[in-house]
Amino acid sequence: MNRENIAVNDEELKKQLVTIDNLRYELKGKELFYYIETFGCLMNEKDSEKLSGVLREIGYVETQSIKQADFILYNTCCIRDNAERKIYGRVGNIKGLKQKKPDLIVSICGCMMQQEHVLEKLQKKYKREVDIIFGTHNIYKLAELLSTRMEVGHQIIDIWREHKDIVEDLPSVRKYKHKAAVNIMYGCDNFCSYCVVPYVRGRERSRDSGSIIQEIKDLVNDGVKEVMLLGQNVNSYGKGLSEDITFAKLLREVNKIEGLKRIRYMTSHPKDFTDEVIYAIRDCEKVCNYVHLPIQSGSTKVLEEMNRKYTKDHYLNLAEKIKKEIDGVAITTDIIVGFPCETEEDFLETLDVIRKVGYDSAFTYIYSKRTGTKAATMGGEVSAEVINERFNRLILETDKIQKENNAKRNGITYKVLVEELSKSDSKLLTGRTEQNILVHFEGDESLIGELVDVEIFETKGHYLNGKLKTES
Ligand code: SAH
Ligand code: SF4
Ligand code: F3S
Q1: Residue among 199, 335, 336, 367 to mutate when testing ligand 1 (max atoms within 8 A of CB)
Q2: 192 and 136 within one domain
Q3: Cβ 197 under 6 angstroms from ligand 2
Q4: Among 18, 106, 358, 435, which residue's Cβ finds the most Cβ atoms within 10 Å?
Q5: Structural domain of residue 340, as residue ranges?
Q6: Mean pLDDT of all residues in the chain?
């Protein structure tokens, strides 16, 4: 792919900004509220910040009350069946809301909309309920779509099969003052056989490093201390760009940005995790000593069926190398239980990896059959009973190890980025260590957004309690 194809399109940007201005003018004087609900991963969270930015610029004010809203937006996910079911639940309630407020506009966007069968259903069954439907490749067009809907008065559908341009620099609203996510690439080319993402997010494409660096510098000037570099497979960052750049080089460049305190990234695929990336994490003081390394299954046979392109041994060696090179590193993972034809022996291999790596945390999922993926046609379904039994054993094991790992943290002083007041006790602050572990401690609200030293005096399964030492 050549670079022109993925350059920021200035013309489109101007067009959208003019539409935003026109809408603001048309809607002037009206008190309008929007309600947004985001499902799925950090990619969607980031998209929702962009969508909120456009709505605010038009003049809408965010509300947490769906009844107050004049515009409702659902940003959807379809990674597993339960994510989709939630959306249909929401759509089912729209009729009642519209009866009470006939001018209400409802829009649904995101990954789920990129699937033909979903679109058909929404077109057939919910023509009156859902006013605007768009996908993942054209979120920047929200103002234009809203304007068209207001003109024509009927359902608008705009889904692109593939992306055309990357349009950045539209207004965006950040959820947190001190941390922000930055897209470094879009899409995925890996086609893991169970996964719907390559079908709904399109082909992999990287942003050029200059625009990434500039965005981070602007964020830092605006008070951001921690950035999360986002991509489905950050380790393949740079492929297809004309500049000489890799993920390791990008980390080193971002590390040079003055005022930035922490760098995180999500997600790193084990197949592309080069030594250069390990050394960059080791050498760059701002890059957190935290690696999310999804294993999915410990069985080499299942990994092959999943099209993950690594073996159990490769993974274990990689995890060992990461631990050896990066001081105090925390490793976390994603695991799928019940992939087609998974046997008890395969599952035992997964438990074996869990024990050998000793994960600091694991996200565990029950396999969900996704229409259009290769695994959906594989047959060999594992029964719900067996899956549940394996899932429970898996959780017991991962929880036990996490607790053991945390117990070793007693008495250690960590640098903690203070995030917010504790949800359960407003006298306490909550922050995260470099290893992404949650820490609660007493302190003043003014410390939110600061990096402080906290000494741990109590360890729990999923979090730590500590005492504030000195500010830094
Ligand atoms: N790009 C990331 C993963 C994004 S999806 C990576 O490859 O690491 C996040 C997680 O959802 C995956 O790691 C996987 O564990 C899980 N997942 C994806 N598809 C799934 C499916 N069909 N059923 C169950 N879990 C799934
Ligand atoms: Fe899905 Fe695999 Fe791509 Fe991750 S790398 S998004 S699991 S296809
Ligand atoms: Fe993310 Fe769900 Fe889409 S996990 S990429 S929002 S399918």
Answers
A1: 336
A2: no
A3: yes
A4: 106
A5: 289-407
A6: 94
